[in-house]
Amino acid sequence: MKLLAATALAVTMATTAMADDDDFVRVQSASDVGATMDALEAAVGSAGATVFARVDHAAGAASVDMELADAQLLIFGNPKLGTPAMQDDPLAGLVLPLRVLVYEDGEGKVWLAYQEPEEMFDDMDIVDDAPYLAMMAGALSKLTAAAAGN
């Protein structure tokens, strides 16, 4: 257990991620949104997780004649991690499966962003040291680093 938490922490610290006061982690990518999302989707598949949806927010905006900077959301998960969370509190289904947003900011930089798992479940009956939280955090860190090219 301690080894798993230490490994997750090391992976998180090794990436170029920035955690903000708003409990989101952002990882800068050197590629555009589409290529970064393709890399993320490939990394998720290689890790054995299931991709449930890829949402193109900019295309949605364009479909109603509105403009939005390039932004895509990947929804994915692994029942081995998500099921224990939902066993601890069924409301975990409100924030699962996991989600990563890839977007272009106002300066033209591309970012991958996700909410820290401990924060996602903060208002639920899930203890902060639940083993799946460290596993989710480690997976998100590893997958976003791979997609960003880090």
TrEMBL record:
<feature type="signal peptide">
    <location>
        <begin position="1"/>
        <end position="19"/>
    </location>
</feature>
<keyword id="KW-0732">Signal</keyword>
<dbReference type="InterPro" id="IPR035923">
    <property type="entry name" value="TT1751-like_sf"/>
</dbReference>
<feature type="domain" description="DUF302">
    <location>
        <begin position="55"/>
        <end position="117"/>
    </location>
</feature>
<dbReference type="InterPro" id="IPR005180">
    <property type="entry name" value="DUF302"/>
</dbReference>
<dbReference type="Pfam" id="PF03625">
    <property type="entry name" value="DUF302"/>
</dbReference>
<protein>
    <submittedName>
        <fullName>Uncharacterized conserved protein, DUF302 family</fullName>
    </submittedName>
</protein>
